[in-house]
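Notes continue from the previous slide.

Worked example: a multi-chain complex. Inputs as given:
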Amino acid sequence: MVVRGILAIALVSMVPLAIAGKNITVKGSDTIVVMGQKWAEVYMQNHPEAAIQVTGGGSGVGIAALINGTTDIANASRKIKTSERDKAKQAGYYPEEFKVAMDSLAIVVNAANPIKELSLKQVMGIYTGRINNWNEVGGPNQSILRYCRESSSGTYAFLKEEVLKNKDYAADCQTMPGTSAIANAVSKDPAGVGYGGAAYYTKQPGVKILSIKKDDKSPAINPVKPDGTLDYEATWSGTYPIWRYLYMYTGFKPQGEIKAYLDWILSPEGQKIVEEIGYVPLKGK
Amino acid sequence: MDTHKLITKDTRLGEWWVEKFLLIAGISSMVIIALIFIFLFKEAIRFFATATPFDLIGKWMYDDWEGHYVFKMMWQSISEVPKYSLIPLICGSFLVAFPATIISAILGIGCAVYLSEIAPSKVREILKPTLELLAGIPSVVIGFVMLAFIATFIQDFFHTKFRLNAFVGSLGVALAVLPIMITIAEDALRAVPKELRDASYALGASKWQTILGTVLPAAVSGVSAAVILGFGRALGETMIVLMATGNAALVTGNIFSSVRTMTANIAAELGSVAQGSEHYYALFLVGAVLFTFTFTLNLASEIVLNKMRQKLRM
């Protein structure tokens, strides 16, 4: 008993030392990887003593690495699952969650498509294969061509959970290897529909970002202002219904260098980078 | 005298080492194939720990839209009820590989006949290196050209629903298969003894009659081996189909429909799958099926080629 107590004290007192002494590794979501690298770059310029390494691989990969102890911080474009939290506890970790930014997901069509808005239900109908012609949602008589992300993508899972209510994607969804591939396909395909981070599409010629209605009674809200910049208010207030938080997870309550880094990310300076990259900063930061 | 003896001994020892090295090099490919075979099937078989062979065809599922049970042949690995039907993937693979083989067989055999029978040596000197250049184009480049340019052209020309479809993919794959097809077919044509041609001419046959009536029939097994091997290569092609076919896992016979091939499916999903999950073993199973197909095709072409060699020796 006594020996175990001493051991425990020794281990606990060693943890902050170990963390303060080593480099910070960040791993996870491909959605966050560019922003994460920019954060690390700017932070290291101002704190020459810090060494931060950022890699992608996907949200699941990042959290798995956190549980294996091979990363200090996991990036995730989704909340940690209960099963993952249980696994972490078994491995002796107590994941702490930090919301670091917001991301609004845009539904896009070809610029030549006269459709301007869809309801969430219609988006669900289109992507589950219930709605197959644009004239069913007030467009021209033309069959709908659905473009999707690969099943490994966090965006694929996000739309499936939040908009499709966990129903399956239609079998004829064409899967594209990235948001840029979807943008390219939709811009060339008059009957196409696609999705992805809203910020990405603001700079894309040939595609149109649709306004989305939460239900039949609510107004149609566009995630982008008429001047082509992201409408932060629409995401903050939740009137634009397809949005998500982007997260960072640590294995324990952060201390030392890691705490300093996370505090900086949540500071106005860190949130300014969120804006620069094209995501929605946290409200009031 | 003594020095001479020493050298002989040394040389012998050296020879022994070289011999052993060559033996290892020779059987290494066999060992590697055996290892891949064992590894692939060992992992694939574990799929059946949690699923039945019937799952590979389809699943009876309640459709809340239709209001009754329907038989779903789908590949949908990320789902509340994962569906691992191989039918759409096999369908996709063949819908790309068949047209690709036909296109490249027509062009390839034509080119081989021209090269071995008709072309003056000057033309040959230019054409041969050009073909080798074609073989050197990375498949990702072919895929990109198909995706960015040819797909639009095909859609405008045929007014297809899907811009990226099996036909666009098979055009790309045909380009990738063509060099192999030409090389093997030309070898087969050149292996036809000169005496046969001379005899044909001596009987008063024209060049065209000689080619059609004598040379091609004599080389028919070699040429078919080229086609079979090309088909195997077309089934195995990954990057071009991943980029150019749209990857929608549909059960269809329409060549202008978007399809998902076995190879593209593995490439797209294996990177993110959780190791040891049902999905993981399902992907290995797809790999095993693909390997069986290409292995059988390669074996068949080898047998056909052997037959031809025996025939020509007689």
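Summary box: DSSP finds eleven helices and eleven strands in chain A. The interface with chain B takes residues 58, 60-61, 130, 143, 145, 150-152, 156-157, 160, 166, 168-169, 171-177, 184-185, 188-189, 191 of chain A (CB under 8 Å).
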